[in-house]
Write a structure and sequence with these properties.
6 helices, transmembrane, elongated, NAGPA, Phosphodiester glycosidase domain-containing protein, 355 residues, 8-stranded antiparallel β-sheet, 2 domains, transmembrane helix, membrane, alpha+beta, 20 strands
Length: 355
Amino acid sequence: MISTKKKINRFFLLATGPFLGMFAFMLFSFQSMHVEVHTASYVPKQTLAAQTVQLKQNLDKADQTVKATISSIRKTSALYKQTTAAMNAIVKTAQTQAARPESIYNRRISGKLGTPFERVESSRIRIELYRVNPGVYQGYAMKVKLKDPDAMQMALGRDKVGGAETTLQAVSRKGAVAGINAGGFADSGGKRYPLSTTVLNGKYVNGFEPSFKDLFFVGLNDAGRLIGGKFSNQADLDRLKPRFGATFVPVLLKNGQPMPIPEKWKTSPYRAPRTVIGNYKDDQLLILVVDGYNESGSSGATLQELQSKLYGLGVMDAYNLDGGGSSSLIVNGRVVNHPSDGSLRPVPTHFLFFK
Protein backbone atom coordinates (compact mmCIF):
# COMPACT_ATOMS: atom_id res chain seq x y z
CA MET A 1 0.00 0.00 0.00
CA ILE A 2 2.86 2.43 0.84
CA SER A 3 4.59 1.61 -2.44
CA THR A 4 1.40 2.43 -4.39
CA LYS A 5 1.05 5.84 -2.71
CA LYS A 6 4.68 6.66 -3.51
CA LYS A 7 4.05 5.86 -7.16
CA ILE A 8 1.00 8.17 -7.19
CA ASN A 9 3.06 11.00 -5.64
CA ARG A 10 5.74 10.59 -8.32
CA PHE A 11 3.00 10.77 -11.00
CA PHE A 12 1.69 14.00 -9.46
CA LEU A 13 5.14 15.64 -9.51
CA LEU A 14 5.80 14.58 -13.10
CA ALA A 15 2.40 15.88 -14.21
CA THR A 16 2.79 19.33 -12.61
CA GLY A 17 6.55 19.76 -13.21
CA PRO A 18 6.40 21.32 -16.71
CA PHE A 19 3.79 23.88 -15.65
CA LEU A 20 5.73 24.91 -12.57
CA GLY A 21 8.89 25.25 -14.67
CA MET A 22 7.13 27.45 -17.22
CA PHE A 23 5.72 29.63 -14.44
CA ALA A 24 9.18 30.08 -12.90
CA PHE A 25 10.64 30.97 -16.33
CA MET A 26 8.01 33.66 -16.94
CA LEU A 27 8.64 35.21 -13.53
CA PHE A 28 12.38 35.24 -14.22
CA SER A 29 11.87 36.89 -17.60
CA PHE A 30 9.63 39.54 -16.07
CA GLN A 31 12.22 40.37 -13.44
CA SER A 32 14.93 40.69 -16.12
CA MET A 33 12.77 43.05 -18.20
CA HIS A 34 11.93 45.05 -15.09
CA VAL A 35 15.62 45.56 -14.36
CA GLU A 36 16.35 46.57 -17.93
CA VAL A 37 13.60 49.25 -17.89
CA HIS A 38 14.80 50.88 -14.69
CA THR A 39 18.55 50.63 -15.21
CA ALA A 40 18.66 52.22 -18.69
CA SER A 41 19.98 55.78 -18.58
CA TYR A 42 17.79 57.00 -21.47
CA VAL A 43 15.04 55.33 -23.49
CA PRO A 44 13.16 57.12 -26.32
CA LYS A 45 9.40 57.54 -25.80
CA GLN A 46 8.53 55.43 -28.84
CA THR A 47 10.86 52.66 -27.68
CA LEU A 48 9.50 52.94 -24.15
CA ALA A 49 5.92 52.72 -25.43
CA ALA A 50 6.77 49.65 -27.48
CA GLN A 51 8.45 48.02 -24.50
CA THR A 52 5.40 48.83 -22.37
CA VAL A 53 3.10 47.19 -24.88
CA GLN A 54 5.39 44.20 -25.10
CA LEU A 55 5.58 44.02 -21.31
CA LYS A 56 1.77 44.14 -21.07
CA GLN A 57 1.49 41.38 -23.66
CA ASN A 58 4.01 39.26 -21.75
CA LEU A 59 2.16 39.87 -18.50
CA ASP A 60 -1.12 38.89 -20.15
CA LYS A 61 0.50 35.72 -21.46
CA ALA A 62 1.98 35.05 -18.03
CA ASP A 63 -1.43 35.59 -16.44
CA GLN A 64 -3.03 33.18 -18.91
CA THR A 65 -0.26 30.64 -18.33
CA VAL A 66 -0.66 30.91 -14.56
CA LYS A 67 -4.42 30.45 -14.82
CA ALA A 68 -3.96 27.46 -17.13
CA THR A 69 -1.31 26.03 -14.81
CA ILE A 70 -3.53 26.44 -11.74
CA SER A 71 -6.42 24.84 -13.60
CA SER A 72 -4.20 21.95 -14.66
CA ILE A 73 -2.87 21.54 -11.11
CA ARG A 74 -6.42 21.42 -9.78
CA LYS A 75 -7.40 18.80 -12.33
CA THR A 76 -4.26 16.79 -11.57
CA SER A 77 -4.92 17.11 -7.82
CA ALA A 78 -8.48 15.93 -8.30
CA LEU A 79 -7.23 13.00 -10.39
CA TYR A 80 -4.64 12.22 -7.71
CA LYS A 81 -7.34 12.17 -5.02
CA GLN A 82 -9.59 9.98 -7.17
CA THR A 83 -6.71 7.61 -7.91
CA THR A 84 -5.71 7.45 -4.22
CA ALA A 85 -9.30 6.73 -3.20
CA ALA A 86 -9.56 4.06 -5.87
CA MET A 87 -6.29 2.44 -4.76
CA ASN A 88 -7.37 2.52 -1.11
CA ALA A 89 -10.62 0.84 -2.08
CA ILE A 90 -8.73 -1.80 -4.08
CA VAL A 91 -6.37 -2.47 -1.14
CA LYS A 92 -9.29 -2.72 1.30
CA THR A 93 -11.11 -5.11 -1.03
CA ALA A 94 -7.95 -7.20 -1.44
CA GLN A 95 -7.48 -7.38 2.33
CA THR A 96 -11.10 -8.43 2.79
CA GLN A 97 -10.79 -11.09 0.11
CA ALA A 98 -7.51 -12.35 1.60
CA ALA A 99 -9.15 -12.68 5.03
CA ARG A 100 -12.10 -14.67 3.72
CA PRO A 101 -10.40 -18.10 3.61
CA GLU A 102 -9.14 -17.60 7.19
CA SER A 103 -12.61 -16.53 8.31
CA ILE A 104 -14.26 -19.49 6.59
CA TYR A 105 -11.76 -21.93 8.12
CA ASN A 106 -12.22 -20.40 11.58
CA ARG A 107 -16.01 -20.77 11.34
CA ARG A 108 -15.59 -24.40 10.31
CA ILE A 109 -13.34 -25.38 13.21
CA SER A 110 -15.35 -23.28 15.69
CA GLY A 111 -18.55 -24.95 14.50
CA LYS A 112 -17.21 -28.32 15.62
CA LEU A 113 -16.64 -26.96 19.12
CA GLY A 114 -20.08 -25.43 19.52
CA THR A 115 -20.84 -22.06 21.08
CA PRO A 116 -18.22 -20.41 23.32
CA PHE A 117 -19.44 -19.53 26.81
CA GLU A 118 -16.65 -17.02 27.40
CA ARG A 119 -14.47 -14.88 25.18
CA VAL A 120 -11.39 -12.69 25.65
CA GLU A 121 -10.39 -10.34 22.84
CA SER A 122 -7.66 -7.75 22.47
CA SER A 123 -5.26 -6.50 19.82
CA ARG A 124 -2.82 -9.23 20.93
CA ILE A 125 -4.96 -12.31 21.48
CA ARG A 126 -8.36 -13.94 21.08
CA ILE A 127 -9.47 -16.65 23.52
CA GLU A 128 -12.69 -18.64 23.25
CA LEU A 129 -13.85 -21.11 25.90
CA TYR A 130 -16.07 -24.11 25.08
CA ARG A 131 -17.50 -26.96 27.11
CA VAL A 132 -16.56 -30.49 26.08
CA ASN A 133 -18.93 -33.24 27.17
CA PRO A 134 -19.05 -36.31 24.92
CA GLY A 135 -20.73 -38.30 27.67
CA VAL A 136 -17.81 -40.30 29.05
CA TYR A 137 -15.87 -37.32 30.41
CA GLN A 138 -16.30 -33.60 30.94
CA GLY A 139 -13.88 -30.80 30.28
CA TYR A 140 -13.15 -27.56 28.53
CA ALA A 141 -11.65 -26.46 25.25
CA MET A 142 -9.77 -23.18 24.94
CA LYS A 143 -9.13 -21.97 21.37
CA VAL A 144 -6.41 -19.33 21.17
CA LYS A 145 -5.51 -16.99 18.34
CA LEU A 146 -2.14 -15.34 18.96
CA LYS A 147 -2.20 -12.03 17.11
CA ASP A 148 1.09 -11.19 18.80
CA PRO A 149 3.60 -14.05 19.32
CA ASP A 150 4.57 -12.56 22.68
CA ALA A 151 0.99 -12.96 23.93
CA MET A 152 1.97 -16.48 25.03
CA GLN A 153 4.86 -17.07 27.41
CA MET A 154 6.17 -19.75 29.74
CA ALA A 155 6.95 -19.18 33.41
CA LEU A 156 9.01 -21.18 35.87
CA GLY A 157 7.58 -21.66 39.36
CA ARG A 158 8.50 -18.51 41.26
CA ASP A 159 10.93 -17.72 38.42
CA LYS A 160 13.57 -20.17 39.59
CA VAL A 161 14.71 -23.68 38.77
CA GLY A 162 13.35 -26.01 41.42
CA GLY A 163 10.55 -23.64 42.33
CA ALA A 164 6.87 -24.47 42.07
CA GLU A 165 3.58 -22.58 42.30
CA THR A 166 0.01 -23.08 41.19
CA THR A 167 -1.03 -21.87 37.75
CA LEU A 168 -3.35 -19.37 39.41
CA GLN A 169 -0.41 -17.95 41.34
CA ALA A 170 1.69 -17.75 38.17
CA VAL A 171 -1.14 -16.05 36.26
CA SER A 172 -1.64 -13.52 39.04
CA ARG A 173 2.04 -12.85 39.56
CA LYS A 174 2.73 -12.32 35.85
CA GLY A 175 -0.44 -10.38 35.09
CA ALA A 176 -1.69 -12.93 32.56
CA VAL A 177 -5.30 -13.32 31.47
CA ALA A 178 -5.14 -17.13 31.22
CA GLY A 179 -2.86 -20.04 31.95
CA ILE A 180 -2.46 -23.81 31.95
CA ASN A 181 -0.01 -26.23 33.50
CA ALA A 182 2.82 -27.25 31.16
CA GLY A 183 5.46 -30.01 31.35
CA GLY A 184 6.12 -32.83 33.76
CA PHE A 185 8.42 -32.66 36.77
CA ALA A 186 10.62 -34.60 39.13
CA ASP A 187 10.91 -33.96 42.87
CA SER A 188 14.28 -33.96 44.60
CA GLY A 189 15.52 -32.51 47.88
CA GLY A 190 12.23 -30.77 48.58
CA LYS A 191 12.30 -29.02 45.21
CA ARG A 192 10.29 -29.60 42.03
CA TYR A 193 12.34 -29.61 38.82
CA PRO A 194 11.11 -29.43 35.19
CA LEU A 195 11.32 -32.75 33.40
CA SER A 196 14.04 -33.15 30.75
CA THR A 197 14.60 -30.49 28.06
CA THR A 198 13.12 -27.12 29.05
CA VAL A 199 13.57 -23.84 27.19
CA LEU A 200 12.85 -20.38 28.57
CA ASN A 201 13.45 -17.12 26.69
CA GLY A 202 15.32 -19.01 23.98
CA LYS A 203 17.78 -20.62 26.42
CA TYR A 204 18.02 -24.17 27.77
CA VAL A 205 17.22 -24.19 31.48
CA ASN A 206 19.29 -27.28 32.28
CA GLY A 207 20.90 -27.94 28.92
CA PHE A 208 19.61 -30.10 26.10
CA GLU A 209 18.70 -33.71 26.83
CA PRO A 210 18.09 -36.08 23.89
CA SER A 211 14.57 -37.50 23.78
CA PHE A 212 14.37 -40.92 25.41
CA LYS A 213 11.59 -43.44 25.90
CA ASP A 214 8.31 -41.69 25.05
CA LEU A 215 9.20 -38.12 26.06
CA PHE A 216 8.74 -35.18 23.70
CA PHE A 217 9.39 -31.43 23.74
CA VAL A 218 6.65 -28.90 22.95
CA GLY A 219 6.69 -25.11 22.88
CA LEU A 220 6.53 -22.02 20.68
CA ASN A 221 9.08 -20.62 18.27
CA ASP A 222 9.98 -16.99 17.54
CA ALA A 223 7.04 -16.66 15.12
CA GLY A 224 4.53 -17.84 17.73
CA ARG A 225 3.98 -21.25 16.10
CA LEU A 226 3.63 -24.48 18.04
CA ILE A 227 6.65 -26.75 17.62
CA GLY A 228 7.34 -30.14 19.14
CA GLY A 229 8.38 -33.75 18.83
CA LYS A 230 11.27 -35.99 19.70
CA PHE A 231 14.81 -34.68 19.17
CA SER A 232 17.90 -36.85 19.27
CA ASN A 233 20.31 -33.88 19.06
CA GLN A 234 20.20 -30.22 19.95
CA ALA A 235 20.85 -29.01 16.39
CA ASP A 236 17.51 -30.43 15.24
CA LEU A 237 15.64 -28.53 17.93
CA ASP A 238 17.69 -25.38 17.46
CA ARG A 239 16.67 -25.25 13.81
CA LEU A 240 13.07 -24.71 14.95
CA LYS A 241 14.18 -21.67 17.01
CA PRO A 242 12.33 -22.54 20.24
CA ARG A 243 11.45 -19.51 22.35
CA PHE A 244 10.13 -21.61 25.21
CA GLY A 245 8.89 -25.12 25.84
CA ALA A 246 8.62 -28.08 28.21
CA THR A 247 8.63 -31.88 28.15
CA PHE A 248 6.13 -34.66 28.80
CA VAL A 249 4.61 -37.76 27.12
CA PRO A 250 3.21 -38.85 24.66
CA VAL A 251 2.69 -37.23 21.22
CA LEU A 252 -0.96 -37.69 20.17
CA LEU A 253 -1.12 -36.25 16.63
CA LYS A 254 1.50 -35.33 14.07
CA ASN A 255 0.68 -33.66 10.74
CA GLY A 256 -2.99 -34.42 11.29
CA GLN A 257 -2.45 -38.15 11.85
CA PRO A 258 -2.81 -40.15 15.10
CA MET A 259 0.45 -41.38 16.57
CA PRO A 260 0.84 -44.76 18.30
CA ILE A 261 0.18 -44.41 22.02
CA PRO A 262 2.69 -46.37 24.13
CA GLU A 263 1.08 -49.38 25.84
CA LYS A 264 2.10 -48.12 29.27
CA TRP A 265 0.23 -44.85 28.78
CA LYS A 266 -2.92 -46.60 27.61
CA THR A 267 -3.45 -48.09 31.04
CA SER A 268 -1.32 -46.19 33.54
CA PRO A 269 -3.64 -44.58 34.31
CA TYR A 270 -6.53 -45.65 32.10
CA ARG A 271 -8.62 -42.56 32.80
CA ALA A 272 -7.33 -39.34 34.31
CA PRO A 273 -7.71 -35.59 34.40
CA ARG A 274 -5.78 -34.39 31.33
CA THR A 275 -4.28 -31.28 29.76
CA VAL A 276 -3.40 -31.41 26.06
CA ILE A 277 -2.27 -28.75 23.60
CA GLY A 278 -2.48 -28.76 19.82
CA ASN A 279 -2.56 -26.50 16.80
CA TYR A 280 -4.70 -26.02 13.71
CA LYS A 281 -3.22 -25.50 10.25
CA ASP A 282 -3.77 -21.74 10.60
CA ASP A 283 -1.60 -21.83 13.78
CA GLN A 284 -4.46 -21.28 16.21
CA LEU A 285 -4.01 -23.28 19.39
CA LEU A 286 -6.49 -25.66 20.96
CA ILE A 287 -6.15 -26.69 24.60
CA LEU A 288 -8.28 -29.38 26.21
CA VAL A 289 -8.49 -29.67 30.00
CA VAL A 290 -10.49 -32.67 31.25
CA ASP A 291 -11.89 -33.01 34.75
CA GLY A 292 -11.53 -36.07 36.96
CA TYR A 293 -12.25 -36.62 40.64
CA ASN A 294 -9.13 -38.69 41.32
CA GLU A 295 -6.01 -40.18 39.76
CA SER A 296 -6.92 -43.85 40.30
CA GLY A 297 -7.79 -44.37 36.64
CA SER A 298 -11.56 -44.41 37.10
CA SER A 299 -12.40 -40.81 36.12
CA GLY A 300 -11.42 -38.42 33.39
CA ALA A 301 -10.52 -39.32 29.80
CA THR A 302 -8.30 -41.92 28.17
CA LEU A 303 -5.55 -40.75 25.84
CA GLN A 304 -7.22 -42.63 22.98
CA GLU A 305 -10.44 -40.69 23.58
CA LEU A 306 -8.64 -37.37 23.51
CA GLN A 307 -6.64 -38.38 20.46
CA SER A 308 -9.85 -39.25 18.64
CA LYS A 309 -11.50 -36.02 19.77
CA LEU A 310 -8.63 -33.86 18.57
CA TYR A 311 -8.48 -35.70 15.26
CA GLY A 312 -12.19 -35.11 14.73
CA LEU A 313 -11.77 -31.42 15.51
CA GLY A 314 -9.21 -31.05 12.72
CA VAL A 315 -6.17 -30.49 14.93
CA MET A 316 -2.82 -31.04 13.17
CA ASP A 317 -0.32 -31.64 15.99
CA ALA A 318 -1.21 -32.48 19.58
CA TYR A 319 0.76 -33.21 22.74
CA ASN A 320 -0.29 -34.56 26.13
CA LEU A 321 0.89 -32.28 28.93
CA ASP A 322 1.13 -33.17 32.61
CA GLY A 323 -2.25 -34.31 33.95
CA GLY A 324 -3.85 -35.70 37.08
CA GLY A 325 -3.78 -33.22 39.91
CA SER A 326 -1.55 -30.95 37.84
CA SER A 327 -4.26 -30.18 35.26
CA SER A 328 -5.15 -26.50 35.58
CA LEU A 329 -7.11 -24.01 33.49
CA ILE A 330 -7.22 -20.39 34.64
CA VAL A 331 -9.12 -17.64 32.78
CA ASN A 332 -9.84 -14.11 33.98
CA GLY A 333 -8.53 -14.79 37.45
CA ARG A 334 -10.60 -17.87 38.25
CA VAL A 335 -10.08 -21.63 38.16
CA VAL A 336 -12.25 -22.96 35.32
CA ASN A 337 -11.67 -26.71 35.76
CA HIS A 338 -12.15 -28.83 38.87
CA PRO A 339 -8.72 -30.03 40.11
CA SER A 340 -8.77 -33.65 41.24
CA ASP A 341 -6.77 -32.82 44.39
CA GLY A 342 -9.54 -30.49 45.48
CA SER A 343 -7.16 -27.58 45.03
CA LEU A 344 -4.52 -26.55 42.51
CA ARG A 345 -1.19 -28.37 42.60
CA PRO A 346 2.06 -26.35 42.57
CA VAL A 347 4.02 -27.22 39.41
CA PRO A 348 7.31 -25.94 37.95
CA THR A 349 6.18 -24.80 34.48
CA HIS A 350 3.16 -22.90 33.18
CA PHE A 351 2.01 -21.68 29.76
CA LEU A 352 0.58 -18.18 30.19
CA PHE A 353 -1.51 -15.96 27.88
CA PHE A 354 -1.57 -12.15 27.90
CA LYS A 355 -4.01 -9.52 26.63
